[in-house]
Request: fold
Amino acid sequence: MLPELSLEGRTAIVTGASRGIGRAIALSLAEAGADVVAAARTQADIEDTASEVRKLGREALAIQTDVTRSADIDAMVQKTVDRFGKVDILVNNAGQIRVQTMVPLPKLPFEHPQVTDADKRISDDVWKDMMDVNLNSVFYGCRAVGPHMIERGYGKIINMSSTSGKQAYPMYALYNVGKTAIDMLTRILALEWAPYNVCVNAIGPGHFHTMLNGAECANDPESCSMYTENIPVHRGGHLRELGALAVYLASPASDYMTGQINYLDGGWTAR
Reply:
């Protein structure tokens, strides 16, 4: 392995680490040499991720965290510093998808198995909840680790964005708006923190094989097949590929990269 890709001696926090993308990234970072703090709402699930990290020979800490609460994130960062003495890497991964039109429409733009409350307008509470999970959690995370990384003169922040942050999709306002805002926050913090050797980047995944879209494909395999056929490489992504990109962005190999939204999408956004 190139020495620049090694994370030996680094400490990483990964939110939403209990399953899917977050778990895959946590394990990839550990495989590259990092000690990992796994954070999510369900203690049992993150304990499982932490156990897998330890099997790779790395130290791990599972911290039950509600990322929509800034106090929880502040406490998570402090516990990490208390245990490991530092935070080198933060992966803001926690998020959720909700598919719903702004207001009821006589006809949906297209059929979708995940459409929610098609006969209702988006409520204030639903809007706020989605912004809390997808956007505010990223703001809280960056704000919590920022002073620590700036003081140390080193840090790597990876914000999980999406192709949905670049391309508009009907019925995805609740999701796309938050991801677009994450992209801008990433760029602004990259400019503010570059003088202190803190790199802030984002990953914009396309269609990946996770529990969420796996269930969607199982429920509607024909639509799923049509979707992947429209991807230029004609397949969905593998979590291992996503983990490898996260390792690069977390490592010294990417010290000259900051403020970038890295789309890993099989060519989807290249059109």
About this structure: The mean pLDDT is 94. Helices lie at 20-31, 43-55, 70-84, 124-152, 173-193, 211-219, 221-229, 239-250. The domain at 3-270 is CATH 3.40.50.720 (Rossmann fold). The first helix runs from residue 20 to 31.
